[in-house]
Structures are given as structure tokens and as C-alpha cells.
Write a structure and sequence with these properties.
By secondary structure, the chain is α+β, with helices and mostly antiparallel strands. The chain contains 8 helices and 11 strands. Helix 2 runs antiparallel to helix 3. The chain is elongated, with a radius of gyration of 31 Å.
């Protein structure tokens, strides 16, 4: 009897030791799914495990993490490859970090602090995508730049109209510019913000209504008439000056 009790105690102790040694926040993965369990996750561990799942190399310097606190999940997240890419970008973005493509074709990325000395480098190396490619992933928190062609709106007017919508967002780093063409607008920033800017532009870049077009035509006609009157007055003034006696 004593031997049985002793054996049972040893088995229970072994089971307790095994359970206590398991980390409930350990990230699990198979060929198709990445599982982020509920709990607190350090940035480095989260980046490394997601990089393995995605088959990438994500460069990460400790100096870029100096102000980034751990991430706490209240519920588990089960992610496929596309979702894992977006989730990692979103989670570290909430801590002021940006996942920057360095050589996307070869799977090389880097994590940079948006408040660190290399923040500008994150945007200067942003890949170029078409507006359609940007809108295909409107929630992605990675740097990107795109060129939007306008049909009815001047690019300078569009730039000034967009600025108030993004002026209060210090982390997006949205930049607007032109290429010297009044129909071309260049947008650079975090893809989610760039997608929002494209949607706003497409909403506003519409053909003027008939009333507005008529008003514009009337205004142009009035300006042309005033210019004609001014030219006639200048011609008459010139004739009068010719008739005046010349001063010795």
C-alpha cells in the first residue's frame, strides 16, 4: 500500500512539474496557422516567432525597442500568413514601431521606431505600390508610397484639402506632394493612412455639377470680358498719350 501511495505521489509530482514548466503564453505554429495565446508578449519574441512563421528575416536592434512596452492580449489570435503579417504590423505599430520592407522579394524586413533617430529612414525606403494595391490591403501598417492621378481636381488644391484630415496624426508621417503636373499627387506614409487619403481623394475628385460648371463658365466669360475692356482702355490711353504735346 505504501509503495502504491509513493508511486502515485511521484506521478502527481511529475505531472505538476510538467504543467508548471509549460509557458501559457508560448506562441504555437504549424504550416498554415500562427497562434498568439492570451497573455503578455515581449516585442522581440513576437517578432521572432512571426518571422519564422512567415519565412522572413526581420532585423531588430535593441536600441529601437527602448521605449516599446510589452503587448498584452486578452484573447488568443489564430492567424494565417496574410493575417499574421497585418497583425504583427498592427501590434508593434501600437507601440510606436514600424515594420519596414528592406528587400521584400527576399523576405528581409526591419523594425524601426517611429520616434527614434531612424524614423525618416523608414519612410524614405517605402516601396512604391499602385493605388489599387494599397486599397487591396487598407489596414496594413507598413510604409508605402503611391501616385494618384486626378481627373477633375488640381493637385495643389487636393493637397491643401487633405492636410487637415491628417494634421493631428503624429505617427502616420503622411507626406503629400506633386511632380509638377497638376493632375498628379504623390502620397507617402503608413499604408492604412495612405489608403484613407486615396478614398478621400476619389470621393472628392468628381466632375463638377451642372450648376457649378455653369458658374465657372460664367466666371470665365466675365473675366474674358473684363480683360477685353482693360485692353481697350489701355489702347485708348496710349492714343491719348500720343496726342499730348511733347515736353521739351
Amino acid at each position: 500500500m505504501m509503495n502504491r501511495l509513493t508511486s502515485l505521489a511521484l506521478v502527481l509530482a511529475a505531472c505538476t512539474s510538467t504543467l508548471s514548466s509549460q509557458d501559457p503564453t508560448k506562441i504555437e505554429q504549424d504550416a498554415n496557422t500562427l497562434v498568439l495565446p492570451a497573455g503578455v508578449h515581449e516585442i522581440r519574441g513576437l517578432v521572432n516567432e512571426t518571422a519564422r512563421f512567415l519565412g522572413r528575416n526581420i532585423l531588430l536592434e535593441q536600441s529601437e525597442l527602448s521605449e516599446a512596452s510589452p503587448i498584452e492580449l486578452q484573447t488568443p489570435m489564430r492567424l494565417d500568413r496574410k493575417q499574421a503579417d497585418e497583425a504583427l504590423s498592427e501590434l508593434i505599430y501600437s507601440r510606436g514601431l514600424l515594420l519596414v520592407p528592406r528587400d521584400a522579394e527576399r523576405g528581409t524586413y526591419e523594425v524601426l521606431s517611429m520616434r527614434g533617430p531612424r524614423a525618416r529612414d523608414a519612410m524614405s525606403s517605402a516601396p512604391t505600390r499602385t493605388p489599387e494595391e494599397v486599397l487591396a490591403r487598407p489596414n496594413l501598417k507598413q510604409p508605402v508610397q503611391t501616385v494618384v492621378m486626378l481627373q477633375f481636381t488640381n493637385s495643389m488644391i487636393a493637397t491643401n484639402a487633405l492636410r487637415p484630415f491628417f494634421a493631428g496624426n503624429q505617427t502616420s508621417g503622411l507626406s503629400l506632394g506633386t511632380t509638377g503636373n497638376s493632375a498628379t499627387l504623390v502620397i507617402c506614409g503608413v499604408q492604412a493612412e495612405v489608403a484613407r487619403a486615396i478614398k478621400l481623394l476619389r470621393t472628392a475628385d468628381v466632375k463638377p455639377s451642372l450648376d457649378v460648371e455653369m458658374q465657372m463658365n460664367e466666371g470665365a466669360t466675365r473675366i474674358a470680358a473684363l480683360e477685353k475692356q482693360l485692353a481697350a482702355m489701355q489702347e485708348r490711353l496710349s492714343e491719348i498719350e500720343k496726342r499730348l504735346p511733347q515736353k521739351n
